[in-house]
Every structure is written in C-alpha cells, then in structure tokens.
Amino acid sequence: MKILTGDYATLIEHLERSGQQDEQETVENQVKDILRAVKETGDEALITYTKKFDGVDVVDFRLSKEAIQAGYEQTTPEVVAALQAAKKNIESFHQKQKQNGFVDAEKSGVIRGQLVLPLETVGIYVPGGTARYPSSVLMNALPAKIAGVKKIVMITPPDVNGVPDGILAAAAICGIDEIYQVGGAQGIAALAYGTETIPKVDKIVGPGNVYVATAKKLLFGEVAIDMIAGPSEIVVLADQFANPRFIAADLLSQAEHDTLARSILITTSEELALGVQSELEAQLSDLPRAKIARQALEDHGYLFVVPDLKTQFDLMNAIAPEHLEIQIAEPMSHLSRVKHAGSVFLGNYASEPLGDYLAGPNHVLPTSGTARFFSPLGVEDFVKRTAFISYTKEALRLEQEAVTVLAREEGLEAHARAIEVRFEEDVGGEQ
Description:
Elements: E1 3-5, H1 8-17, H2 24-41, H3 43-54, H4 65-74, H5 77-95, E2 102-104, E3 110-118, E4 121-125, H6 134-147, E5 151-155, H7 165-174, E6 179-180, H8 184-193, E7 203-205, H9 210-219, E8 224-225, E9 233-238, H10 244-255, E10 262-267, H11 270-284, H12 290-300, E11 301-305, H13 309-319, E12 323-327, E13 343-346, H14 352-357, E14 383-391, H15 393-409, H16 413-420
Helix pairs in contact: 2-3, 2-8, 2-9, 3-8, 4-7, 5-6, 5-7, 6-7, 8-9, 10-11, 15-16
Keywords: Amino-acid biosynthesis, Histidine biosynthesis, Metal-binding, NAD, Oxidoreductase, Zinc
Pfam families: Histidinol_dh (PF00815)
Function: Catalyzes the sequential NAD-dependent oxidations of L-histidinol to L-histidinaldehyde and then to L-histidine.
C-alpha cells in the first residue's frame, strides 16, 4: 500500500479514479439468464447451476432435521459455546430495536393508530465460497425471530462435503430447521419465485457475492430485499498516538475477505502511516489468506495522510464506509462528526472483528457508499406497518369540507362524493 498525501479534493479524485472497474452489465446479463431459467424450469435449473458453479451434484436440496442436528453435534464444543455467547449478545442488542404500535384518540370521535406486524416468510442467504460464515446465520436469523417471523427459510451454497457443520450448528442454535443447499443467483431466484422444492418468500436478506447482489437488485419488487451489498470495507481514522500494529491487523481483517475488499487508513500522522505500512508487510508474511489480502491491499487499499482532523472526517463521510474505526484520542467525543457509516468502532480495543462476531450489533451492513441511505440489518427489516382509522359521523362532518375540497382540487369527483353520500339523507342527529 502506498502512502498518499493531499487535500480532500485530491484524495477524493484519486479514490474515484481508482474505483473498481464496472463489469455490472456483463454480470447482469448472466444473472438475467439464471433468473429466467429458474423461473421457467425450477429445480431442474437449480440442479444444473449447482453442478456448474459449486461442482456438486444435488438432487434433494432440503436438509433433514437429522442432518442439521448431526452438524451441530459434530461441531466442536468451543465453537458451539462461542456461537451461544454471540447469540446472547445479538439478542440483547436487537431486543431493544423492537417497535410498538400506537393508538391516538386525541380528537373526539376519531381513533387513529398503527399496527406493527411481522413478515410471514423470510429467506436468509448465508454465503459460502472462499470462507464460511456461521456468524451470518445468527445475524440474519435472530432479528427475524425477535420480530416475530414465523417461517424462516435459509439457503447456503454446498461444497463437495455438503453444508459446513459450523453453519448447521448456528442454524440449530437459532431454531432454523428449513435449510436448502443452494446458493448464488439461482438460490436467490428460487426464494423469489419458488420452485417445486423451495418455497417463495416475502423478503430476502443477507450478503453474498456480486451475482447474489445483482440477483437481489433485479428481483426487487418481485420480492423485498434488505440492501444491495458489495465487497467488505473498512476505514480507520487515527492520530499520532494510535498503535500501528493494531491498525494493520484491522485493515487485514477486511482485506482477507476477498480481493475486492477495501481497507483504508486516514491519518494526520505520516509517521503512523509509515508504521502501518511496515506492519502490514510483517503481518502478511504468515497470514493463511495472504494472497487474497495482498491483492486486496494492492488494488483497493489506501494509506492517506491528511492535514487535519476535519479533513479526516470529511473524507470518511464522503466514502461512507461499511465499517469505521476511530482510533483517535477520546474517540467518543468525535462520534457527532460521523454522518455516514454502517457501524462505528470507538477506541483501540473496539476492533472490527468484535462487531463481526460477538458484540451484538448486526454485521450485515451497507457497503460501497450506501451507508448514506441504508442502515444495518435489524428487527425493523422484518416488520411492516399498517395504519388504521375510525371516525364517528360527527367527526367526519367536521372534516367533510376539507376532504371534498382537496378531492376536487385533484380532479377526483368520486372521492368527494364518497364523503358527501354519507350526509345526503341527514335530517339531523346520528343516522
């Protein structure tokens, strides 16, 4: 990673110029073909694509309850204990997100209110590929459970040995017993359209690769989605007192995800940047996924040295990162400067992987600048709101003129008459 210096405008220009190459059109065309095939031929297409993309012959996509339990039992006690600890923290955090309906009876004869209702059926996508993510099972399923979703359908791509035991253990801990071993755009299509085996759902949540993200984007409207996620990313804001070894480790924690991951340091200290640069090389030397991490750092990693604190935060907010670490003296005092970030980690000991696994806030986060308008996955993603009203005749009489005036202003005569018809035979008093 090279050290870059300059003002805000110069660094933003560099980021934009060095952005990922746009292959979206090619990907979209491929995904459209997959979606069409699944819609038309159902399970037959799933069998074909699972063989093609995952190298696995699958005939029965649904895993039995016995297979899920076996996966749980074959998972080491240490992993099960860690998953249980994570579950406790995730539940305690997300319980506080629960929304309540309300009833408003402030006006005589008028009752207004809102119902908060859980979605009926949700599909959760748990990624596979170059890494395994039992933590994603917890992060997707537990908020849905807290929201009151009754039917959770989980899909995850199989490998030659099936679905990894750790993922099955996480599912068992969450109480998920409907799991299908299928992934990619074809899995998303199956959840959206339904097949002979896999049921159609109301909403799909969970991160995946570019094909999964594109499928969700194209199917939005056919089914609800949480967000369109891109590669993982982290921005670390640090001053001269930060620990370069800590920062390098945290940058690598994102870089090892995949070669498209983005790791960025923004600091006011060139000495710190040099220290981080040196630490990155040292820590890469024995990292198991060093090849992936090194490629990510070379293609999408940046060490920015900026003139002042304001430029640090201005640049970070322009990036709107998925993960933001603030390793600056008295970090809590700077929290109000954060305008756009998926999740914030304050201080030297709030390392990003803590949020990935155990702290409790959700790790399904907006990426690629979408933290400007998307939020982390939460309980609110698994509910819908329904309003209700009740009027007495006298209450309606007080509002009659305003409603009919507005209806006719919009040229909707039947709207106005729907109100007036209720008073045509009124000879005084309640009818």
